[in-house]
Amino acid sequence: MKIKFDNWRDQRGSELEQAKKVVSDKNISLVVLSKITKIPYATIRVYRQDLSKLDRASWENINRLGQAYDIASIEKVMTQEDMKEYPKKLAKMFKNWSIEAINKNQDVAVIQRMKEIILSDPLAVAELFKAEKKS
After folding, report:
1. Can you give the pTM of this predicted structure?
2. What's the chain look like in SS3?
């Protein structure tokens, strides 16, 4: 039996699709992409010239380019200051939820675990930041 879970990250595409998006983004310099990913400039240039080469690229290169895509996505919605301050705001929100749960004699374990998971994931923090700015 094959089970498929819906995941908010799936909306962003597979790692290969993300790699192709970040490599083809002309707003991202090949030099910068090479520096971030530690993939040789010449290799990234070949990928940009022919995206189908990524179909045969190593998993390591695809993974690194996928991470670069995440970084670029975060930088589109958050400044460095936002990345510093917004997690503090989320932590305060989780603290308030925990206090409210304690006052109602409810368990706070789930709230604490949600806090750990979300605050340890910069992409999740950026998605929440983006959602807050839309509302």
Report:
1. 0.78
2. CCCCCCCHHHHHCCHHHHHHHHHHCCCCCHHHHHHHHCCCHHHHHHHHHCHHHHHHCCHHHHHHHHHHHHHHHHHHHCCHHHHHHHHHHHHHHHHHHHHHHHHCCCCCHHHHHHHHHHHCCHHHHHHHHHHHHHC
